[in-house]
Amino acid sequence: MAPDKRPPTTLSDVARRAGVSPMTVSNVINGKGGVRPDTRRRVLEAIEATGYRVNAVARALAGGQSRVITVFSPQLNRPYAAEVIQGAALAAERLNYDLIVMMLSEQGRSDVSVVTRLAAGALLIQPSSEGRWRRADLPAHVVSVDGPGERPLTVDNYGGARQAVGHLLGLGHTRIGFISGLESGDRQPFPHPPGPHDRDDADERLRGYLDSMAAAGLEVPAGYVQHGDYSKPSGERAAARLLGLPQPPSAIFVSGDAMALGAMHVAQDLGVRVPGDLSVVGFDDLPIAAASRPGLTTVRQPLQRIGEVAVQMLVALAEGRDPGLPPPFPTELVERESTAPPRPAR
Amino acid sequence: MAPDKRPPTTLSDVARRAGVSPMTVSNVINGKGGVRPDTRRRVLEAIEATGYRVNAVARALAGGQSRVITVFSPQLNRPYAAEVIQGAALAAERLNYDLIVMMLSEQGRSDVSVVTRLAAGALLIQPSSEGRWRRADLPAHVVSVDGPGERPLTVDNYGGARQAVGHLLGLGHTRIGFISGLESGDRQPFPHPPGPHDRDDADERLRGYLDSMAAAGLEVPAGYVQHGDYSKPSGERAAARLLGLPQPPSAIFVSGDAMALGAMHVAQDLGVRVPGDLSVVGFDDLPIAAASRPGLTTVRQPLQRIGEVAVQMLVALAEGRDPGLPPPFPTELVERESTAPPRPAR
DNA sequence: TTGAAAGCGCTACCAG
DNA sequence: CTGGTAGCGCTTTCAA
Q1: pLDDT at B131
Q2: Is the dihedral of CA A159, A162, A168, A170 positive or negative?
Q3: Does the residue B109 lie in any domain?
Q4: Does the keyword Cell inner membrane apply (chains A, B) (predicted)?
Q5: Do B36 and B164 reside in the same domain of the chain?
Q6: Bigger pLDDT: B1 or B77?
Q7: Mean pLDDT of chain A
Q8: CB-based contact B122:B141 (threshold 8 Å)
């Protein structure tokens, strides 16, 4: 049962019907000036009547202007990527571009090049986790998020960490633990041009934590810095280690919302009340941070905004302008219910 | 700063280098038999040496075999779609197809046709919520999920509802409320061929609930059936109405995990303990169901599995086989901590 | 203001 | 087994 066997209408069909040459139809479609109003109207009518749609594939082959932006992302069922993509989609729609997302397989078997010639630009999400990108397989313009590359969009991780710890300090906490993301070295470097802004989010947050503690004249006891891998279970394990310390912290800054949720949950399982006995601050402000009970106080990354800016840059680049690289995006502390002043010292 | 100005290698370049005709290169690439081993080897070497990659766009234009499957989905930051897509991606990778996701804008302004000619088939997620699809703008083969269409993949919603209510009944509950999804009529019909399996998830679940209650010889008191829109806030409102009843239920079956989470949270806010005072069962088994506290007992839809099957069907169709339409996918009750026997009657 | 010619990179078809 | 020819549907460049 082959569906719809009629060959689709082509530009020439439209031209014939309108009694003009294919070129004129092309000019009308692409808004190129120099078409007499009534000719234009006739063409438009023919397009309407035939239900014609440009064949984007043919257009791309012929070297026409592309109005497609591609996002390359590993797993879409990660809230982080989903938020960035949502923002990108919003911007694309506003700019009248179409957005295509290509999921990268873990094994890197995906043939990235299928969409390369179709897209005006590409947004790379977490490019470092995938192995070898060949620059030649990517569209002409590339912006990356949460990973290295030429034109990487970054967030003020250091500042965010200081906001988090500052908040805890302000509440009166002095025993503040930290659960970091990947340890340095866990991330693979971006093979090709190592952009000027390469750096490690995890390291910056750690530095922010350390500097805040030092600035407050506070010691960081042994075992107060634990590592996870941004997953909830890893957050549970790290928090369990922290809570098992002889002098457990009264507050934990966790470098990721999923891990923070895990931390809250182990605490609750251990009979440690959040925020009564333990304050928890996360990082990211994913949807789950607001949906959890207690609501998670967290450092907000403007994920959707980042996606928007990425697309705006890509469109500018595609249209011949140079948008430059914006400074790291500022973070913002979102106070919810997972933080409170420490128990009065006994 | 135009990156990489070298024109990419073409098939002819490879042919020249290998000293064969373009056709032979094409045959090697596409695994068409009839190429002498050493010729084949020479071609492979030339490909390797030049770093050649097929131009998928040109191939598609020339009518070649596509190894791309497209998913059309509204908002990617919805866990439901994300899970289905994840499953689809797994299957695609296994079958050596590439997966492309196109986000549909709310306004329906997206130009679906950009990928149409590139893809061997398309998976439509929640097609009913988007307005007018023109069959001609879609790839040759289409499978839809969570919405009508030719070849719709469905889940046993009725059976799932009966599992949920049966579980509650088995625990000893008799006052069981229901929070439904969209009311009938909220969904827009699929314009074109209204497939043989059109039906409304919400209605089926309601029917399952009603039949279970009736089969147990139980009344459904006035106000025990509330409606939401699958969002967490709507679940909160519906649960608040249920809990505000003179004879509030001791258990609620909620037709969606996000709404169920909302129900648990208002209950907690009202001082109603879950599961002590109120049992809650959700539907879907999204990641949040397992990540919440208490863990949400829910009816699991095999979302990833559905995505996999959709891709398998599409690939079969693309390769000329007819996979037929599988029966509704069975659901499974996942017991977690949000359900318990009712308080002993006073 | 409009049109004719050429070709993007590839594959189908049919020769040799 | 291999190669030539034609053409997918569009846009470019240039001429009318």
Answers
A1: 55
A2: negative
A3: yes
A4: no
A5: no
A6: B77
A7: 89
A8: yes
Judged by CB atoms closer than 8 Å, whether chains meet at A103 and B99 is answered as yes
Do A272 and A312 reside in the same domain of the chain?
Answer: no
Task: Name the residue among A244, A239, A222, A249 with its Cα closest to residue A168.
Answer: A249
Two structure tokens written together for A127? 């490019």
Per DSSP (E only), the strands in chain B are: 68-73, 98-103, 121-125, 141-145, 152-153, 176-180, 225-227, 251-254, 279-284, 297-300, 332-334
Q: Which of A123, A340, A106 is nearest to B99 (CA)?
A: A106
Q: Which residues, by CB, come closer than 7 Å to strand D?
A: A 7-8, 10-12, 22-23, 26, 29-30, 52, 54-55, 58-59, 61-65; B 20-24, 27, 33-36, 39-40, 61-63
Domain with B108, as residue range(s), is 68-153+304-319
**Per-residue pLDDT tens over the stretch A280-328:** 999 999 999 999 999 999 999 999 999 999 999 999 999 889 999 999 9
Across all strands, nucleotide nearest A60 (CA–C1'): D10
What does pTM read for this prediction? 0.89
Q: Is A226 helix (H, G, I), strand (E, B) or coil?
A: strand
Where on strand D do bases come within 7 A of a protein Cβ?
A: 1-5, 7-13
Would A4 be classed as within a structural domain?
A: no
For residue B329, being part of any structural domain is answered with no
pLDDT confidence band for A128 (50 / 70 / 90): low
Phi, psi of B85 (to 5 degrees): -65, -40
Q: What span, in angstroms and rounded, lies between the C-alpha atoms of B111 and B90? A: 26
CA of B58 to C1' of D8 (A): 9
